[in-house]
Amino acid sequence: MLDTLARLSPPMQALAGTLFTWALTALGAAMVFFFKNIRQRVLNAMLGFASGVMIAASFWSLLSPAIALAESDGRTAWLVAAIGFVAGGLFLKIIDWVLPHIHSLDSAPEGLSTSWRRSILLVLSITLHNIPEGLAVGVAFGSVAVGIPEASMAGAAALALGIGLQNFPEGAAVSIPLRREGMGRGKAFWYGQLSGIVEPIAGVVGALLVITMRSLLPYALAFAAGAMIYVVAEELIPTSQESKGHSDLATIGVMLGFTVMMVLDVALG
């Protein structure tokens, strides 16, 4: 598998990795064909798991390599990492202000006022935080292509695997609530998988940026990390803790997701 990936160009590697993460989103959305409802405690645990994966990936796959690369280039590593990290969070915050969306079908709309249906706003919310995930995978594969010592094909593949694992519950978290609101199974599945389609686009863009502008790589790595942590802090963890009495499962999910991603990154990276 890794040998096959290694023979591809960096943008194609990023495309392959993010098509995998999108496929896991679609697979999660396909759960709507088997279930009409999803228990709140199960949803909380899944969102917690996704949070843990993203937190671990943000450090081991993105921030740590960004710091090491900045140091090897003779730059002020902490400043490079801080600038990129804050820029990633700020970028998503600006989109958050502008793009109409909701975090769940029961939450109040955010962003600019719109008459769009709540189902569309929910899909836009998930789509929003899939952008940095795709970008992270693309930047990881691009880092391998430009010969960064801290980057490896196995590490980039591990990141894609981790992102894919946490995309599965996200796909279900879109399609099943839509079905519960009366939407047909096919249409609910379509919207669920559609939320992940931005990942291949962001992945290819990330890889292209890295291989054409290597000097931006440490900033790009930290940028992706900041964007992912923003999503975790703004949406995933708060949503998983909304239901009283089930927050313990969300916390366990965070710990488990973090552990799984840490093991993948350290063992394979």
Describe the 3D structure.
This protein has 269 residues and is mostly helical. The protein has one domain (11-268). Helix content is 77%, strand content 0%. The chain is built from ten helices and no strands. Helix 3 (40-72) packs antiparallel against helix 4 and helix 5 runs antiparallel to helix 6 (153-180). The longest helix has 33 residues, at 40-72. The two termini are 15 Å apart. The relative contact order is 0.25. The mean pLDDT is 84.
Please outline the helices and strands.
Elements: H1 2-6, H2 10-29, H3 40-72, H4 77-98, H5 118-145, H6 153-180, H7 185-194, H8 198-212, H9 217-240, H10 247-268
Uncertain runs: none
| N/C terminus separation | 15 Å
SSE topology string? HHHHHHHHHH
**What sort of overall outline do the alpha carbons produce when their principal axes are compared?**
globular
The total count of helices amounts to 10
Helices and strands: which structural class?
mainly alpha
Beta-strand percentage? under 5%
Main beta sheet strand tally, sense and closure: none
How many β-strand stretches? 0
